[in-house]
Amino acid sequence: MTAGTLSLTFDNLGEAAELEMGGLAADAPLGGHVTATDVVPALLDRLAERELAATFFVEGLNAELYPDLLRGIAGRGHEVAYHAWRHEQWDGLSAAEQADNLARGLAAFERAGLEISGLRPPGGRLGPGGPDVLREAGLRYCSPAGTGAGVDGSIALLPFQWRHLDASCVLPPLAGARKQMTGSPDPVDPAVFLFSLERSIEELVGAGGYMAIVLHPFMLGWLGDENLDALLDRIAVAAVGEDIWVARCDEVAEHVLAHPDRFADGTSMDTTSWA
Q1: Residues 6 or more apart from 83 whose CB is under 8 A from it?
Q2: How many CB atoms lie under 10 A from the CB of residue 219?
Q3: N or C: which end of the chain has fewer CB within 10 A?
Q4: Model confidence over 204-219: pLDDT tens digits?
Q5: Can you tell me the distance from the alpha carbon of 213 to that of 200, in angstroms, rounded to the nearest whole number?
Q6: Residue 118 belongs to a domain
């Protein structure tokens, strides 16, 4: 791994999380969510303009609702990874429930012609199943909340930090992440979040390590086109002109697993959750 490694990631798609959190009626019509019809297609064009590859952590339900979109994401050079079936709070599931959730999701992705390598657990914590349930399902990596790339047997650990996640700017339980960004627990403005990410990229370039940026398609309107373009431009510059590797999570995972001695005990888990 080069001195610094960065993964650009996007969490959630369509109606899945809204259904899980009770934001939609059980009988609401599905399959026409704006993030799937408008937001992600436009985002794919933005990424292509800058030759950036990203990882999209999406719920398994989307393999049934939007298979063409998911195949299109993969066909444009991005990774599609797992984010529970319907955005269930992962550490609230028993090990058996996690295994069932994974089996259902992976089967749906397989029917859509997609192979899944990794999981980001909604809520940020792995819970009762830990890495074992992922290993048994044949996954190669997970991306929980924490710091530092690491390895647990045949599972690569590629954690994200809450301060690098857009929703941390507004969610009450993540006041600690806002304090890391600005010194205050108050809600953070999109421009301040952009500045904090740019500062973290500078730290990555200088000090090395692993960083995952976590954005949500449903929050890109909050972030704003100008801020999104500025962030993508900054990542593109780092990818071509500095000692930094911008890579999909599955690519980083393969590197970590190929050099386990370098990453032994490299990850510290974060017990904080957005829930």
Answers
A1: 11, 12, 57, 58, 59, 119, 120, 122
A2: 19
A3: C
A4: 999 999 999 999 999 9
A5: 10
A6: yes
CB 112 within 8 A of CB 63: yes
Q: Which DSSP letter does residue 208 get?
A: -
From the list 142, 173, 135, the residue with the least C-alpha distance to 156 is 142
For the chain, what is the domain count?
A: 1
Which 3 state secondary structure label does DSSP give 77? coil
In the chain, pLDDT over 70 holds for what percent of residues? 99
User: How far is it, in rounded angstroms, from Cα 252 to Cα 248?
Assistant: 6
The mean pLDDT value of the chain amounts to: 95
Per-residue pLDDT tens digits for 161-173 = 999 999 999 999 9
Confidence of residue 48 (pLDDT cuts 50, 70, 90): very high
Amino acid making up residue 118: G
- Residue 216 domain boundaries: 4-269
Q: 236 lies in a domain? A: yes
> Which band of pLDDT confidence, cut at 50, 70 and 90, is reported for residue 95?
very high
CA distance linking residue 124 with residue 162, whole number of Å: 9
d(CA 248, CA 229): 19
